[in-house]
Amino acid sequence: MSADVQPTPTSTRALVSYEPTTASQVDWRLEDVSLREPKDDELVIRLVATGICHTDLVFGSLPTPFTTYPKVLGHEGAGYIERAGAKVDVGKPGDAVLLSYSSCATCRDCVDHHPAYCESFAAINYETETDTFVSKEAATPLGLGGLFFGQSSFANYTIVKQASVVNVSSIVRDESELKLFAPLGCGFQTGMGAVDVVAQAGPGDAVVVLGVGGVGLSAIAAAKFNRSHTIIAVDRVKSKLQLALELGATHVIESSDDTDLVAEVKALTQGAGASIVVDTTGNMKVIEAGLALTANRGQLIIIGVPPMDAQLGVHLVTFMQTGKILRGCIEGDVNPAEYIPEMIKRFRAGQFPIDKLVNFYPEFHRALAEMKDGRSVKPVLVW
Q1: Mean pLDDT, range 72-81, rounded to an integer
Q2: Cα distance from N-terminal residue to C-terminal residue, the chain
Q3: Which of 40, 95, 142, 270 is most buried, taking the most CB atoms under 10 A from its CB?
């Protein structure tokens, strides 16, 4: 599938992230901006949709010096190639693409087919490049950071690193489907890959997913796909727990501050606990409970973003005696160019109902509000 190629604009609309004046609150403003010229390894992409991920909220609410402002965030883009640099070989103008994280392709982990653990991951994904965009609404020219996750896709047009591009022109049927698939490049592959690739779940596993937003529900779907015999979803929002049941959960726990998660999970697992626990919350109390409810020789996989100064206390002798495994996980440890087509295949087979998880929004304020109160599992902005 391809779209008619139009002349690349020098101006576009983008959602600009300014340093917040209220702690833990983003300050995003839709502005007219201009684009710089793409480099040899970059493309200009016309976006049609961009998923909002919790990571966007984290990097839009951090105080300096943990990050820099102003900048354009967004890292779950879907769109079409408008222009391609001289060294780009991932596609041609008009091709439909999904955008994911970037990697260097040359370090040990990239060469070993684990690009999510690229030695330069933080630098080339979390940091932004100054003056990728320039605000046209400031009194004087104001450079804006770009290339967040190699893409900064909260914009109608953006500059993208080739490493962030997955060409899906031979897979996606139309533009409506392309918009639906926008979250595959981060949130959905993170949850699904954590269970598929990192945990390697199977029929013998009892799986607990702590927090069932878009990431957690993807993990539930993966556990179902791998025929895990017990799949327990934990969340505070009833509507999300209902979705978890529809995607394959065998049990749900509606949690609160008073919930004894360890006792409830052990009651559902004949006292053993879960062989696979996936935390998507980043909440330290939940993570501590997650480690406690992990079965002997089981594994706790951390994929939610905890506070930047968070530390986890572990009684090492007990940890040794139980044989538990504590694992960090970025992007599901998947190669997007290989795994995104696999997720689309599961969608077509009815094994990953993405359409039940996604809500489209033309206006970002409403998307953020409904994401915060739990009404929207996976908000996607349309451009």
Answers
A1: 99
A2: 19
A3: 95
